[in-house]
Design a protein that fits this description.
Order of helices and strands: HEEEEHHEEHHHEHHHHHHEHEHEEEHEH
Distance between the termini: 43 Å
Strand content: 5-15%
Helix content: 40-55%
Number of helices: 16
Largest sheet: 6 strands, parallel
Shape: globular
CATH topology of the largest domain: TIM Barrel
Number of domains: 2
Number of strands: 13
Radius of gyration: 23 Å
Structural class: alpha/beta
CATH class of the largest domain: Alpha Beta
């Protein structure tokens, strides 16, 4: 641990935002040894231990060996960085000073915490690690991955709570006294219903679990509460089960309705469909009721685990990939300190406004733009494509300016530090996301725009419109 006493934590953190504090923004007067969020004059801010307001400006995946080529153990970024810097220590120092020079003050998710060891003058980088509580649990219980395969952790399994606490102790507890920790992302882009990973609702996914698995017991238990008998369930779900035990023993239940992906659903279309078909409405209500139980348990258990391991730093949530059903965001708002969401759009204003309605501060955990002149395929991966690097720089400027207009947005983290391999990384993505290319060469137009916008971020956020 780099900081061993509260006094050293405070002394170090005093400079976190000093060079980037809003021009009209004096200290709030309230100090804490750790970074926290507060509402000042109707706008949310991050507050450093000196009481100064700041915006978290970050880059994700700052790693010496960022990606391996799909199907191999070859990491082009590792090879380039080793040839250029000789080893990870020199690379960390150079990258830290470069990022700080561009006005960034935070290492986003999946970054090498050691980069935060190095400063530029008196300026350091805070960092926001990802704990991967649900991801790790899915890996322990199945052969799949929560993010890649859309497997939701069985939050009703008693092992989930034990695993969450164990994972938080491993990741969070050793850094509980470090002033440079911004907070903890509990997971990334969990599946909250039909999405790009499959058409199933969480309820139908849990009903398809093996008999007597805790999650399946919870799903069948909810249905037994909602229907007087199995005949009522059969009538809505178009099934022919003789008993509830038969439902428990079923290996697969075909849903009576397949809805569009959560982010493709139209509220008015859904309402009219439910009004015209009471059975559809009952099925949707079943799914929503179960989703509320799942979300409440996920956010409660992960929140308690992080808080027990580290009572000093913020719970930054699970980085929503899309605006989830209302029951999910309502549960998140009960337990997290900030709501984090990834937003691969040209303008995040509408999405930020939806999250802001919950009254919590917001961090954009990922956003990016890919250029067609980069020489990369850009055939796999999220986010808009633009023609040139100049267009990419302009897109960054427009995006961040729009985001900071929202009084609840306190941070934005660019995805990601280095381009992906042209052959594709381990999941096939092959896009121009980097602030540097695969040879550690800087994208000058993009980073120039980043430097200018980052320098104005607090002023933009403080402006009255």
């Amino acid at each position: 641990m780099r900081v061993t006493t509260q006094m050293l934590c405070l002394a170090a953190a005093l400079t976190l935002a000093a060079d980037r504090a809003p021009a009209e923004g004096p200290p709030t007067g309230a100090t804490s040894p750790y970074i926290h969020a507060a509402r000042v004059d109707g706008r949310w801010w991050l507050i450093d231990p000196s009481g100064r307001r700041f915006i978290s400006k970050g880059v994700t995946t700052v790693s010496y060996a960022q990606d391996t080529i799909y199907g191999t153990s070859v990491s082009p970024s590792l090879e380039a960085n080793r040839a250029k810097y000789g080893g990870p220590v020199a690379w960390r120092k150079a990258v830290a000073q470069r990022l700080i020079g561009w006005g960034f003050n935070t290492l986003g998710a999946w970054s090498d915490n050691g980069v935060a060891e190095f400063a530029l003058g008196k300026r350091h980088l805070a960092y926001a690690p990802i704990v991967d509580i649900g991801e790790r649990f899915v890996g322990q219980k199945t052969n799949g991955q929560a993010w890649l395969h859309g497997i939701f952790p069985d939050v009703f399994d008693p092992d989930f709570e034990a695993s969450a606490r164990r994972r938080a102790r491993e990741v969070c507890a050793p850094l509980a006294g470090d002033a440079w920790v911004l907070g903890w992302f509990t997971d990334n882009e969990l599946r909250w219903g039909p999405d790009w990973r499959g058409p199933d609702e969480l309820l139908t996914m849990f009903l398809d679990l093996p008999a007597n698995v805790p999650g399946k017991e919870a799903a069948v238990g909810l249905l037994r509460e909602r229907y007087r008998d199995v005949a009522g369930f059969n009538a809505v779900w178009n099934t022919r089960f003789a008993t509830w035990d038969a439902v428990m023993g079923a290996s697969s239940i075909t849903p009576p309705v397949v809805r569009p992906a959560v982010y493709a659903q139209n509220e008015e279309t859904e309402r009219l469909a439910d009004e015209s078909d009471p059975k559809r409405a009952a099925f949707v209500a079943d799914c929503d009721a179960f989703l509320a139980e799942v979300a409440d348990r996920y956010f409660r258990v992960t929140g308690e685990a992080v808080r027990a391991a580290d009572p000093n730093h913020m719970n930054l949530g699970c980085r929503f990939a899309y605006f989830p059903p209302q029951a999910v965001v309502a549960a998140a708002a009960k337990y997290v300190d900030l709501i984090s969401f990834n937003c691969y759009q040209t303008d995040p204003g509408g999405t930020a406004a939806r999250y802001a309605a919950l009254g919590k501060p917001l961090i954009i955990g990922e956003f990016s733009f890919r250029s067609e002149d980069s020489g990369l395929p850009n055939s796999r991966g999220a986010g808009p494509k633009v023609k040139t690097q100049a267009d990419r720089a302009a897109a960054f400027r427009n995006y961040v300016t729009a985001a900071l207009r929202n009084p609840n947005v306190v941070g934005y983290h660019w995805f990601e530090h280095c381009d992906e391999p042209k052959e594709g990384r381990d999941d096939g993505e092959n896009s121009n996301y980097g602030v540097v290319n695969i040879h550690d060469e800087v994208y000058a137009e993009l980073t120039r725009a980043m430097t200018e916008v980052n320098a104005q971020a607090e002023v933009l956020h403080a402006a009255r419109r």
